[in-house]
Amino acid sequence: MALYPLIRPLLFSLEAEQAHRLVFALARAGGFIPGFHRAQAAFLRYDSPRLRTRVWGSDLTNPIGVAAGFDKDGLILPALFGLGAGFVEVGTVTPRPQPGNPSPRMFRLPEDHALINRMGFNNQGAYALGRRLGKRPPPAGLLGINLGKNRDTPLTAAAEDYLVAMHALYAHAGYLVVNISSPNTPGLRSLQEKHTLSQLISLLKGEREKLAEVTGRRVPLLVKLSPDMSLEAVGDVVETALEYGLDGLVAANTTTSREGLTSPHKVRDGGLSGKPLLPHTLRLVARLHRLAQGKLVIVGVGGVFSGEDAYAMIKAGASLVQLYTGLIYQGPGVIRRIKRDLDRALAADGLDSVEKAVGLEAHQVEKPG
User: Fold this and answer.
1) Is 273 a catalytic residue?
2) Residue 214: is it exposed, middle or buried by C-beta count within 10 angstroms (0-12/13-18/19+)?
3) Quick check: pTM over 0.85?
4) Is 331 in a helix, a strand, or coil?
């Protein structure tokens, strides 16, 4: 959208979370104007048969989505789908409401086109989200829901939190993501360890099968991973995912690495997102694709700012691509531009479907070993 370069300096003059709240207020206000979201969608529309894809039995107009964390409580879903996203993931949502970490807890790193956040799963709780979604018409695309545990829940009881959230939101989800990789909840990443992960996934998948039998809907179940995992840990995760029949993996969450950053804010605690993640995310996606041998849907997220970035993620092995930080730096028109440039890249390579590009360069992207 041409106006965003003019508006961004105003937004960036505000503290990052304050600007986020302002954007949400404007997006929600737009919903009270008759026809606003239809007009928004028409203005930002870019459709092409090449971009259509099918995952988990659902047909998507395109593989570009909004990552979890942008709209934790499902407050502006019509506006987000109106940007032209093929899917949107809300959350992370915990069973009970929680305020998150003290402010300030989000920092822009303009020199690096990045963000650092230590939000701490601030959200209104799973039941509040369930009530909100229950009152709305079906979303305009695939809706993912990202589940987490409450900060004060002991790690030994984490599975119960995920079960509670799953029950509260199962009826509204197009897919569910188990977030065990945020660096901002103490100890959470320990749930990625093979034995613990096996127990957690076995329990959640068993409960999912019961819910599927009762509801007649089998909601796909995914796990969101850390980009900071060792090679051995990545292999263990894929082995566990295949053993227990997970439907996919989200790669990846924010990183604790500060390698190569120039911004003075690099000293802040929290998880880093944005452009610096892209090379690391591409290698992780490629590794997951190779190890899973096409048996898992890989959702690539981390550093996507352009159609070129999205195409690289897909060729590395991602069937779906998400962005968050790119929206903040480039504004609401970024999804349309990504779709247009991705479509042109596919055409230039003689591919009539984005699905045919998945994993084409996985072996070149992944580092040996």
Assistant:
1) no
2) exposed
3) yes
4) coil
Cα separation values, 172 from 169, 187, 224, Å: 6, 29, 19
Query: Is the distance from CB of 255 to CB of 275 less than 8 angstroms?
Result: no
Q: What is the CATH number of the domain that holds 274?
A: 3.20.20.70
**DSSP E strand stretches across 53-128:** 53-55, 58-60, 64-66, 87-93, 106-109, 114-117
SS3 of the chain: helix, strand, coil, percent, to 5: 45, 15, 35
Residue 203 in contact with residue 166, Cβ under 8 Å? no
Domain that holds residue 217: 4-365
For 291, residues 6+ apart whose C-beta sits below 8 A from its C-beta are 234, 235, 238, 239
Question: Which residues, in sequence order, are CB contacts of 15 under 8 Å at separation 6+?
Answer: 104, 106
User: Which of 243, 248, 259, 246 is CA-nearest to residue 301?
Assistant: 248
**Which one of the listed residues 13, 103, 181, 182 is annotated catalytic?**
182
Contact of 63 with 345, CB cutoff 8 Å: no
Domain count, the chain: 1
Token pair belonging to 117: 């956040």
Torsion, Cα 246 76 13 279, to 10 degrees, reads 20
Of 92, 204, 108, 221, whose CA–CA distance to 159 is shortest? Answer: 204
Give pLDDT tens digits along the chain (369 positions): 467 888 899 899 999 999 999 999 988 888 778 877 777 877 888 999 999 999 999 999 999 999 999 999 999 999 999 999 999 999 999 999 999 999 999 999 999 999 999 999 999 999 999 999 999 888 889 999 999 999 999 999 999 999 999 999 999 999 999 999 988 888 888 888 888 999 999 999 999 999 999 999 999 999 999 999 988 889 999 999 999 999 999 999 999 999 999 999 999 999 999 999 999 999 999 999 999 998 999 999 999 999 999 999 999 999 999 999 999 999 999 999 999 999 999 999 999 999 999 999 988 877 654
